Amino acid sequence: MPDIYRQYVDIAKQLEKGYHDVQDMEFTVERGKLWILQTRNGKRTAKAAIKIAVDMYREGIITKEEAINQVDPYSVYQVLLPCFNPDKVKHSHKVSKGVNASPGAAVGKIVFDTEEAARRGEAGEKVILVRIETCPDDIHGMAVSQGVLTLRGGATSHAAVVAKGMGKPCVSGCEDLIIDLAKETITCSDGTVFHKDDIISLDGGTGEVMEGAIEMVQAGLDEDFETFFSWVDEIKELHVEANADTPKDIENAKKFGAEGVGLCRTEHMFMDPDRLPWVQKMIIAGTTEARKEALSHLLPMQYSDFYSMFKALGDKPLTVRLLDPPLHEFLPSKIELVEKVATKKALGQNYSEDEKLLEIVENLSESNPMMGLRGCRLGLTYPEINEMQVRAIFEACCDLTKEGHHIQPWIMIPLIGHINELKTAKATLVSVAEQVMNEKGIRVDYKFGTMIEIPRAALTAKEVATEAEFFSYGTNDLTQMTFGYSRDDAEGKFLKNYVEQKILPTNPFVTLDVNGVGRLIEMSINEGKEVNSSLVGGICGEHGGDPDSVKYAHKIGLNYVSCSPFRIPQAKLAAAQAAIASPRKQLASV
Amino acid sequence: MPDIYRQYVDIAKQLEKGYHDVQDMEFTVERGKLWILQTRNGKRTAKAAIKIAVDMYREGIITKEEAINQVDPYSVYQVLLPCFNPDKVKHSHKVSKGVNASPGAAVGKIVFDTEEAARRGEAGEKVILVRIETCPDDIHGMAVSQGVLTLRGGATSHAAVVAKGMGKPCVSGCEDLIIDLAKETITCSDGTVFHKDDIISLDGGTGEVMEGAIEMVQAGLDEDFETFFSWVDEIKELHVEANADTPKDIENAKKFGAEGVGLCRTEHMFMDPDRLPWVQKMIIAGTTEARKEALSHLLPMQYSDFYSMFKALGDKPLTVRLLDPPLHEFLPSKIELVEKVATKKALGQNYSEDEKLLEIVENLSESNPMMGLRGCRLGLTYPEINEMQVRAIFEACCDLTKEGHHIQPWIMIPLIGHINELKTAKATLVSVAEQVMNEKGIRVDYKFGTMIEIPRAALTAKEVATEAEFFSYGTNDLTQMTFGYSRDDAEGKFLKNYVEQKILPTNPFVTLDVNGVGRLIEMSINEGKEVNSSLVGGICGEHGGDPDSVKYAHKIGLNYVSCSPFRIPQAKLAAAQAAIASPRKQLASV
């Protein structure tokens, strides 16, 4: 029926032109007549969507703006990260479903011990690190594993944040699994038992854990991707930066198109096996003298980190957050020490060294470390820590400036709740910065700002903004405090249930809660600008990579968002879509 | 010089009349002439201040309002609780200074073990319970000790809250002391070592710990006190209620003039040694069935508590908070179990029972329990707990109503952050209440409200107020979340330093932070009233007994405050002073 065929092709072209999108059409031919029954926009993978959008623009069917609106930002990560073949997933044996903490697909042998994972991963073996929960000690094991599976935690717990930063698949909060560390087994709720070295597959995009090796589809960027994102860059108004903690992260960030680093967490630099001993010495130091001595060994290490990072990033802003986590995170686990002391005691062995360490760990241990001695409270209690970090930053920046590099250091103080904390910390910072610049005989321009992650800081923004050039919203912690949800506990314990029962519309650690947390952000950025019209505002929590949250950031007039490197494209796309929906008149320059 | 004397008496009378207060005058007589050099209001103890105020009113020198303004509310507790002889304190050997967590003076022998303190205290011995920190397990030991000393915690940590409720002296957060539980010694920073059974003195009003037995001055109420507080009751506008958890607490509350119970914490009823096993069975129950079975044993116990409390309080409101704390608070300590298992393992003993319990405790343990599975999150995860509690309340209330008692049950849901939590919890509550009232064939009027202690609840008050008849501000938790300060950690770790360094003007757990926490309270009560004009608001955190915070509560239009029984007089006095300073036109009836 060549006539019918020609007629169909004409109508199809017309429909695609009319709907400005690829159509999925239903038709029938009855008694020699063509009937079009239904048409709707065609479903497609992210890769196909980008190709279609670029093609349709080139064919003159749609505008750039329409092309941008055709691609779902939530799907973009599929182009950047390996995925499982959906057909194989359909027929797989699913043994658990946790929180989709960091997307991507991973296949490997189960390993429970971090040291073992580090050793075997380094040697090229494909392993999956399985832990109750992860802590900073586990980072080197995570770095060389294919993926990470944890029983505790959620979308912003330690494992999730670190895995996202590494672009590594992670499923967290599989509270239905039972791990026996002594026997090295995992027992699933359906009775399946896995032993060490059994192979499993993790889908970090869905949170699914599957038995055996599921077939993967590799990722790959192409010319269409480049073209499409050049349009996105043209149209979006928000700056999209990366969370990057090491020189290696910076390379990753640049690859994904970061326009700066919105969050450099200095504590991650401390976790290297050759640095940790000095960090521990600093922590257990009984006197300021001893603490300064330990810090003096860390100074050259931090200097070289900052030197490489600033150099690699070039003239884009690099925002350094001073030391943030509770100090006991750097020390051995209290439980393990208690166990060791009790065992040695029972066996009549000498345990005095372990007991001494236990006493220190006990003194530093807290009932609720998230709300304890951390963030600026650390730097105000032990100013010499901030002094060392600021010295390292400014020595690196002075040297780079001397060498002719143009750099943009932004420095920020975490966990401010009261203006006086900021004032006091700033005084230390300015005096060290001046001292270093005088020593080096060169000036470096820098910005000084604060994280807004404590509700009280947001509520008193009018005071805080008088001392800060920028507000960097740490939305993970701000969500944590505004809801009173510990991110390490809530997701595994009750949040999944809340979302399933529709008590909450969505997980607030994944998509920003507009009514509560958002209200604090809007109030504070507006009130901050009343007293400081050049105040810059941005989001550096993981919400900075969540498309809906990015759109909200655009809407309320923030200047930038910052997220894990591989989420930059999706954040940029969301920013562009928001700019198309409601262009802003004027943007304060970042 | 009888003339000079007469002249002096005349001038003195004139000055006291003029200044409307007792005068402390300096004078000299030179060459037969009287010179008055200086005069100022005389310093006095609380007892004297009350006597002077009453006398001056009776003599017609001052008005009732002036009498009320003459007494410092912060000093009133001295009249109600035993104090040390100040001269003896001056010459005492002070060995530490912690947080003045609960006022009053205590002298006794050092005891480290709760069971031992309970046994010896019960037998009439004067002991001071010394602990690293206290937990609900320690309550029976605290109840019969003279006072409590802890190394950790602050003004609103467990030890402080419980001790205040008992009217028992407590010094917390003496982080400079080193306790060796094995040797049963305390080593002070000046090198003094105390052994078990050594006598120490605690001043809960100043936080001082002294060696030996310091002489005490006993408290005693007199007629002047009664008269003075009858004026206070006439003039104040705020209702002042008590935090009371047991029938015994109610008697105490009534003695100190409580106008209701603003906070009855049901979990304290669970700590009795004959109840705890059932509570533990409820917690470790693997199934809903098993949980209901355990709860059925708790029902008659809760019924009898509520029956006695409502009956004792009569026609005043009794506000019951449904179960709030994390469940693991009712279980043995994880550390102790780890120790036990390790020891038994090393010695080749059978440890399977302990290991099983440890597994359960581990599953329930959280990184930050304050922000974990507690409050309404518990009742929404295990609705049968709330169902049992509501049934107990309504069975008691129906029976009392049948017996002709007029009672006022107010029921509140703790830790709300989202309107849907309140809606869901309320649906359960209403259905159980209706069921019980139908079974009993009688109606009981009740109010349903919510705690406001999560910043998000305050920020979304317009939504929350549509489902609540009252907002009870849990200012301890609200301060905790708004500042991001764990009350168990912050005071010992950095808050003392913050206050000393003047980074904070005052400890926000003691006096309400007006700019941050207060802003949330004001915003939310005002916005709540916009949608629900009959909304009642009150404070039930310990700030409800802090005079400055009470004045603030009056100022922003709250209806009531609720605090530990012995703080009621000072709260009433502050409320009267606030009413004198700025009387309110109209008060929504409580």
Structural class of chain A: alpha/beta
- Major sheet: arrangement of strands of chain A: 4-14-13-6-7-8-9-5
- The named CATH superfamily of the largest domain in chain A: Phosphoenolpyruvate-binding domains
Number of helices of chain A: 24
**CATH class wording of the largest domain in chain A:** Alpha Beta
Largest sheet of chain A: 8 strands, mixed
CATH architecture assignment name of the largest domain in chain A:
Alpha-Beta Barrel
Span between N and C termini of chain A?
62 Å
Classify the helix fraction of chain A into a percent range. Answer: 40-55%
Number of structural domains of chain A = 4
> Which outline of chain A best applies?
globular
What kind of oligomer do you see? Answer: homodimer
Strand content of chain A: 15-25%
CATH overall fold name of the largest domain in chain A: TIM Barrel
Please, what is the average pLDDT of chain A? 92
Could you list the spans of chain A in which at least 5 consecutive residues all have pLDDT below 50?
Answer: none
Count all strands of chain A and give the number: 23
Radius of gyration of chain A: 26 Å
Question: Biggest protein-protein interface?
Answer: A-B, 62 and 62 residues
Can you put this structure into words, describing what you see?
The structure is a homodimer of 590-residue chains. By secondary structure, chain A is of the alpha/beta class. Chain A has four domains: 1-43, 2-Layer Sandwich (D-amino Acid Aminotransferase, Chain A, domain 1), CATH 3.30.470.20; 82-217, Phosphohistidine domain (Glucose Oxidase, domain 1), CATH 3.50.30.10; 236-326 and 366-581, Phosphoenolpyruvate-binding domains (TIM Barrel), CATH 3.20.20; 334-363. Helices cover 46% and strands 18% of the residues of chain A. Chain A has 24 helices and 23 strands. In chain A, strands 4-14-13-6-7-8-9-5 form an eight-stranded mixed β-sheet. An eight-stranded parallel beta barrel of chain A has the order 16-17-18-19-20-21-22-23, surrounded by five helices. In chain A, strands 10-11-12 form a three-stranded antiparallel β-sheet, with no helix packed on it. In chain A, helix 9 (223-235) packs across helix 24. In chain A, 53% of the residues are buried. The model of chain A has no long low-confidence stretch (mean pLDDT 92). At the A-B interface, helix 13, helix 15, helix 17, helix 18 and helix 20 of A face helix 13, helix 15, helix 17, helix 18 and helix 20 of B.
